[in-house]
Amino acid sequence: MSATVNSLVKPRRVFIAASMASSAALLSVTVMRSGTLFASASSTATTAATLTAATSLAALVRAYTEGAVAQTGRVRIQMASLVDNGNSVPIEVSVESPMTATDHVVGIAIFNEKNPEHQVAEFTLSPRNGRARVATRMRLAMTQKIIAVAKMQDGKCWMETVEVLVTLAACIEE
User: Fold this and answer.
1) Residue 173 domain-assigned?
2) Which of 46, 69, 43 has the alpha carbon at shortest distance from 149?
3) DSSP assignments along the chain, one per residue
4) Is the pTM of the predicted complex or chain greater than 0.70?
5) Do 128 and 139 touch, CB atoms closer than 8 A?
6) Do residue 101 and residue 45 come from a single domain?
7) pLDDT value at position 21?
8) 162 touches 83 (CB < 8 A)
9) Which of 9, 115, 156, 164 has the lowest tally of Cβ within 10 angstroms?
10) Which regions of the chain are under pLDDT 70?
């Protein structure tokens, strides 16, 4: 009986060791989220620090614009500059565009600086929308910059940045 148990234990140990090795290998691959390159990490301890460092606002905007330089202008963010409670903050983004077949906004993205998730929302538009305006609510961890980027049909990108002062923070794990 013990010979049968020993023969079963060894393959189980080999299976567990192989599983642990493959899990470690998965941590070392490139992490992708929403089509945006975040980081490479070789261990669990460095994963969070690496992801935080690699997800700068400039990198996210560059990924969204597909390398195009985002110019300032044409985009307007309507949002309170002083927010009492960061749990539900309304934001509206509008873009100056005639929304015709030859000149229209194809997408609007909203990013923030200090929340755990930096990409807040991404909207797809077409000339049928009539107006290039979107509205949503977001949580804000603390005082930070909010960036709205608009992608035009001709490949040009426009953006606006606002600073929002938050007195009661949300999105913070303690």
Assistant:
1) no
2) 69
3) -HHHHHHHHHHHHHHHHHHHHHHHHHHTSEEEETTEEEEE-SSHHHHHHHHHHH--HHHHHHHHTTTPPEEESSEEEE--SEEEETTSEEEEEEE-----SSS-EEEEEEEESSSSS-EEEEEE--GGGSS-EEEEEE---SSEEEEEEEEETTS-EEEEEEEEEEEE--S---
4) no
5) no
6) no
7) 43
8) no
9) 9
10) 1-55, 171-174
Instruction: Give pLDDT, residue 141.
Output: 86
Check residue 11 and give its pLDDT. 58
Q: Is 37 found in the same domain as 77?
A: no
Predicted confidence (pLDDT) per residue in 86-131, tens digit: 999 999 999 999 999 999 999 999 999 888 888 999 999 999 999 9
- 91 and 134 both lie in a single domain: yes
We report the CATH number of the domain holding residue 130 as 2.60.40.2470
- Residue 73 in any domain: the answer is yes
Other C-beta atoms closer than 10 Å to the C-beta of 115 total 21
The pLDDT assigned to 92 comes to 98
- Residue 31: domain span: 1-55
